[in-house]
Design a protein that fits this description.
29% helix; binds zinc ion; 4-stranded mixed β-sheet; globular
């Protein structure tokens, strides 16, 4: 029998214990910066005061008594970047020791990054990069070869966006033993006995709740290093069991590692997430969407992790849209061409005639092809468009029509859509929006570029509309203290250097999410 004393008081929840143990947060004052506030007047100020996770003063001279003072030495500061549509939850659930390298621009530098990672990887376990990497980012315009990856003393598996699956000799031996077909040069074909089988095996054998939590933390920390402080995740294709699809996950459990980090108060950035649904239009029962709308809550959570609406697919055709509107939820679908944009606008108009959408902030993302007439019709029913999604595209006039859409006045925001089919780095995306060139340097979107200030505005203040939060995305008194101190001046560096920009100090809610030796 246990004495009452052993049972009482009940153990405090982990969060309460941490809060009790943490000393009151010290005020932080940043001085001597070029702080681009992205407020309504686009004010640039030298100082901010951060208190209790929010900006308490912004201006030429802020109170600094008892504060920790950080001298920015003239560096450029921007509000924390908001990516209003990416697939960070997929990236946080990758199998193996997942390496992100969107800030690496040569094959030897990529190999060096894998070698550095290998030092902390147990023997027999895989180093992976699955999704956000592309041959086009490298000066060599190709992925590392088997021979180059053999300089890494762990099995390596690369599954690059826009094609290219690679392994090294250690990885080849492991995969072949399990029946995967690997070419002599380490290439793996994108088919059932190649890449699909390989990714399924890696997921089956290396994913654990702990590995997912580690990958989720490292992914969000990595992108904090590129200045992203808020992600709006747009889901995955649902697979109940480990799948071989790069864009597949169990959409009912994939948020768990992020929830676990939130419970530990260790989320390095804010996560917002939409629920992706794909019910067939022919099935009026809406087998997954109907229970979602009945049993889940939109915009539920806290400042660190919070649900959103339905997207980036709504499913169920017009029936699905009607159900979402009736529930009062936000909805988002993507479009890849003009025909689908037209059909998305028309189906929304049909629903709007029955249930007004005007205040629901429905979104259409990617929008490579649009017409002013269709954009105006979508604007008239309260819609907004997300753009970005471009650095790996090839061809000419590939869109989106950044200039035309920006000047139209429809709510317009920035998204990368990265994580499975493209990259997440805002700087790779900004480069394309500003220059009209893809990462190879080819002009793909002539005459439809934005200025640097316009581009940054889309990824910060303009995205308040898309995440439906007014207290981040700009450096203003009362807002969450989310900011990035850049390693070089985004506004004046040569265009080709935009891709190289990093954050030397990223602050999220007054907490340091990333810091480099400056
Ligand atoms: Zn997407």
């Amino acid at each position: 029998m246990v004495g009452a004393g052993a049972l009482w008081p009940p153990p405090a929840p982990a969060q309460a214990r941490q809060a009790a143990a943490a000393p009151a947060a010290q005020d932080i004052v940043l001085v001597n910066g070029r702080i681009h506030t992205m407020d309504r007047t686009r004010r640039v100020v030298p100082q901010v005061l951060i208190r209790n996770g929010r900006f308490a003063a912004v201006g030429d001279r802020v109170p600094r008594r008892d504060a920790r003072v950080i001298d920015l030495k003239g560096r450029t500061v921007i509000p924390g970047i908001v990516d209003a549509h990416d697939h960070i939850v997929l990236v946080g659930n990758r199998p193996g020791w997942h390496v992100l390298a969107e800030d690496v621009f040569t094959v030897p530098d990529a190999v060096a990054r894998y070698q550095a990672k290998a030092a902390s990887v147990p023997a027999g376990e895989f180093i992976t990069t699955i999704g956000p990497m592309a041959a086009m980012q490298f000066r060599e315009q190709r992925l590392p070869t088997l021979a180059e990856l053999d300089a890494v003393n762990r099995p390596v598996y690369i599954n690059a966006a826009q094609g290219g699956v690679r392994t090294n000799s250690l990885g080849k031996a492991w995969l072949e033993k399990q029946g995967v077909t690997v070419a002599a040069d380490g290439a793996i074909a994108p088919n059932a006995t190649g890449a699909t089988a390989a990714l399924k095996l890696l997921r089956e054998q290396f994913l654990t709740p702990e590995s997912r939590k580690r990958s989720a933390f490292e992914a969000m920390t990595y992108y904090a290093g590129l200045g992203i402080t808020t992600h709006l995740d747009n889901g995955a294709f649902h697979s109940e069991l480990p799948s071989g699809g790069v864009a597949n996950e169990n959409t009912y459990t994939m948020h768990q590692p992020f929830l676990a980090l939130a419970a530990d108060q260790r989320l390095p950035a804010r996560l917002r997430f939409n629920y992706l649904h794909q019910d067939p239009p022919a099935d009026p029962s809406l087998p997954t969407l109907a229970p979602r709308l009945r049993n889940s809550l939109p915009f539920f959570g806290n400042d660190w992790i919070r649900s959103g609406g339905i997207g980036e697919f709504t499913g169920g055709g017009v029936n699905g849209l009607r159900a979402i509107a009736a529930a009062g939820w936000r909805a988002e679908d993507h479009t890849l061409n003009l025909a689908s944009f037209q059909s998305l606008v028309e189906s929304r108009e049909k629903v709007h005639a029955e249930i007004p959408l005007t205040t629901l902030r429905w979104v259409i993302s990617h929008v490579p092809q649009t017409t002013p007439e269709l954009v105006n019709r979508f604007k008239a029913i309260g819609g907004g468009l997300l753009v970005g999604w471009g650095p790996l595209r090839t061809g000419s006039g590939v869109g989106p029509a950044y200039r035309t859409l920006f000047d139209n006045g429809i709510p317009l925001g920035y998204h990368s859509d990265g994580g499975d089919i493209t990259v997440i780095s805002p700087w790779l995306n900004f480069y394309t929006m500003i220059t009209g060139k893809n990462l190879k340097g080819d002009v793909v979107n002539a005459g439809q570029t934005l200025t640097r200030a316009e581009t940054l505005w889309l990824a910060t203040a303009a995205n308040k509309w898309f995440i439906e939060e007014d207290d981040l995305g700009s450096i203003e008194v009362g807002n969450h203290a989310d900011l990035a101190v850049l390693d070089r001046d985004y506004f004046t560096v040569p265009e080709d250097e935009i891709t190289r920009i990093r954050s030397v100090l990223t602050v999220v809610g007054g907490r340091v999410a990333h810091m480099e030796d400056a």
